[in-house]
Amino acid sequence: xxxxxxxxxxxxxxxxxxxxxxxxPWPGVVVLHDAFGMSEVLRRHADWLAGEGYLAAAPNLYRxxxxxSAARAVFRDAAAGSGPTFDDVxxxxxxxxxxxxxxGKIGAVGFCMGGGLALxxxxxxxxxxxxxxxGRLPKDPEATLAAACPVVASYGAKDRSLHGxxxxxxxxLAKKGVPHDVKEYPGANHCFLDDFAPGDVPRPVLxxxxxxxxxxxxxxxxxxxxxxxxxxxxxxxxxA
Length: 240
Description:
The protein is an alpha/beta fold.
């Protein structure tokens, strides 16, 4: 289907939809972008999931044309736990669940900002499993994740912005009895799953990221994808 629009209660929301090539039924997956917004690397993440038998929809959560102010709006909603961002995610989830080929199970996968948002969707949002990739933990993880759905999460040990996040997340999920698979990759930094295409990231930012060692790491990315697929196979496909 590719780039399309989805009618929400208040706007036409741009969405990238990747259709599986194998026969239905399929689980659905909401693919949540990072602070850079809709990008080619995000579309490739959706395409990868579709190739593995998931109906993937990546909504553009930015309501304004200015990336910085739009990102701030998403972060405000995340801090509040409600708002237009959650409405847009719910519209995407509802659309996926309504598709004739969907098996009724909907997951979410998020990257950076989207990873943090995915953690906020683990309870009370109709999501059956989430894949969190270098996502910031909620302010009060024990309260937020008390009744969480299954969580698979991946972090980079060299990511100073999320130092200790993997261990803390695993600790909380274990304490709450939530099925989980949390892994920290020794040689990886932030964004290690994101093989950015030209235009995905402003050039000065990309140069700074390379200088800091932030970006794609093939071995870690391949292992993280393997774990995500195994986890989703159990909690989205087999569970249905």
